[in-house]
Structure to design on (166 residues):
């Protein structure tokens, strides 16, 4: 039996997952991020050093992240992506081993030319910029996701992905 509190958390998580997705039909349900929060375009972007997931998770901002909240936010990702090795591709590529991987590098996935040519390497820094506004960060990407506006959402989700995609 599910408690009332657990049911509320699940309802909130599903609401976040639905709100976070952008089907590309009609206007986005979220207002655009203020100009100051928009990431710089990919050209000249510094993704920071490539480290192990354990090293990233030891950083104070990820050590302080709310793992349970990150998992709930991850439901939006799970609508299109799988996280474990060997799992099938859904709408988006499998995210297993994403950290340290060059963007657009999963074999047999039809990435946009923009992402393939971006030169990005996925680190928490580049993923945070991506999760803020994917189409603003890599113009021409085909990922239909409007982004997460709150820095805490991105931090908690990235900490979760660091754990689940290893």
């Amino acid at each position: 039996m599910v408690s009332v509190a657990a049911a509320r958390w699940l309802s909130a998580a599903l609401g976040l997952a639905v709100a976070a997705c952008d089907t590309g039909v009609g206007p986005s349900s979220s207002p655009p991020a203020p100009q100051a929060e928009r990431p710089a375009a990919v050209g000249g972007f510094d993704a920071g050093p490539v480290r192990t997931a354990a090293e990233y998770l030891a950083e104070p901002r990820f050590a302080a992240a709310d793992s349970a909240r990150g998992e709930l936010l991850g439901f939006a990702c799970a609508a299109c992506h799988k996280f474990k090795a060997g799992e099938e591709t859904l709408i988006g590529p499998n995210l297993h081993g994403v950290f340290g991987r060059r963007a657009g590098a999963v074999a047999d996935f039809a990435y946009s030319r923009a992402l393939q040519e971006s030169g990005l390497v996925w680190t928490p820094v580049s993923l945070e910029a991506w999760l803020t506004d994917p189409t603003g960060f890599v113009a021409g990407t085909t990922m239909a996701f409007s982004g997460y506006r709150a820095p805490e959402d991105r931090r908690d989700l990235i900490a979760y992905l660091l754990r689940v995609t290893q």
